[in-house]
Structures are given as structure tokens and as C-alpha cells.
Amino acid sequence: MDEREIDALQRLLDAVPPPLEPLDVSMLDGLLCAVLVQPRSVPASRWLPHIADVDGRAPPAGFDPGPLHRLVLRRHAELGAAIAARRWFDPWVFEMAPERDGEADDAAAAARDAVLPWVAGFATGFELFPALSQAAGDALLEPLALLYRHLDADDLEDADALLAEIDAGEPPQNLTEAVEQLVRATLLLADEAATSGAPSPRRRGPA
């Protein structure tokens, strides 16, 4: 999907009527990756409602989610093909103008701000669909640490082992490194899904 289509998708999300609380395109992208690394395929009927409303509430009468869903399903298929083949994909991460006083040149802080919405969307999806975390357990510490290091530690309750893994690693120093870690973590999680049950998406090609 090109920038024009991404912008169109964001406009459709912005047009979702209240009281629904839609994701933005970056959060949406993270949530889709969380859905796609589960050990078994998650039906679209289960995750699509969480795009227009984080809590999955039904849209009000008169609102047609069809155009929104069509674009979201295209991105889902695009990401699914990349993850299944264990190849690079471009996360929808957008660099923002620095807002922190005195930190305009802090590339690490700017990278965290840029990837945080994507990671928040992933964490939301991983909480909504916990099959992989229940099946793989501690094997997920390394990839989850790459992602959740961008979240506030206070939001990671009862996660001492994960926090220790985060503390043991080196945070990304710039946006390029941060994006590389998002992709690496996603593909590592897909590998774990392949060993924890019937994998979806499945690795293609010879073993």
C-alpha cells in the first residue's frame, strides 16, 4: 500500500463516529502483526471490530465500515505474506517533530516516540489474542523485550522476567534501529508460533 492509500485509511479511521474510539494507522499496523503471529489463524470477524473501536463495540446505525475494512484487509494480507516468508516489511511508523524541550537532537528519544503507537497497537492485539503467550511463555522474552522496551515500565505489571530482559538489552539509538527491532521481533515471534502449535502464517518453502 502506498502513501496515498495509507492517508485514505487514516481518513476513514478519523471518520469513525463517536462514541467509538478507532486506532490510528500505526496502532492498526502493530495490532495486525500481533494477530498474524498467533499459532493459529485468527478469523477476521474476531479482530476487525477492534479496528474501528479499541474495545470492539458495534458501530452505530448508518455507519458503513466496508471501505475501512477493505483497506485493512489489504494490509493484513500484505503483512501476512511478508511474515509467512520471514522477509522484511515496512512497519507503519512515522517520525514526528520533536516536542521535548532540550531533546530535539536526542535520536533515541525521537525513535521511541515514533514507534510507541505501533508497539501500543501490538500490545493491544497481543492482549486481545493471547494464544501465543500462553503456548510459548518464557520463550517470548527476547522478542517481546525488543518491543515492550518502548512502553512505560509501570504498564508491565507482574512482568519481572520481561523487565529484566529489557534491562539486559541495548535500546535502539535511532529510528532505523528501532524499526529493525520491530521487524526482527515480529519474525522471531512468528518462529515461536511455528514451534508452539499449528503455525499461522506458515513458513513457506523447504524445511
Describe it for me?
Residues 198-207 have low confidence and may be disordered. The protein contains 10 helices and no strands. It has 207 residues and is mostly helical. Helix content is 57%, strand content 0%. It has helices at 3-14, 25-36, 44-47, 49-52, 66-84, 107-128, 131-136, 141-148, 160-168, 175-196.
What labels describe this entry?
57% helix, Four Helix Bundle (Hemerythrin (Met), subunit A), disordered C terminus, mainly alpha, 207 residues, 0% strand
Largest sheet: none
Structural class: mainly alpha
CATH architecture: Up-down Bundle
How many β-strand runs? 0
Oligomer: single chain
Percent in strands: under 5%
Radius of gyration: 17 Å
The number of distinct helices, counting runs of at least 4 residues, comes to: 10
Shape: globular
- How much helix, percentage-wise, in residues? 55-70%
| Count of the separate structural domains | 1
CATH class: Mainly Alpha
Alpha-carbon distance between the two ends: 30 Å
Residue-averaged pLDDT, rounded? 90
- Specify the CATH homologous superfamily: YgfB uncharacterised protein family PF03695
Element-by-element helix/strand order: HHHHHHHHHH
Low-confidence stretches: 198-207
> In the CATH scheme, what's the topology name?
Four Helix Bundle (Hemerythrin (Met), subunit A)
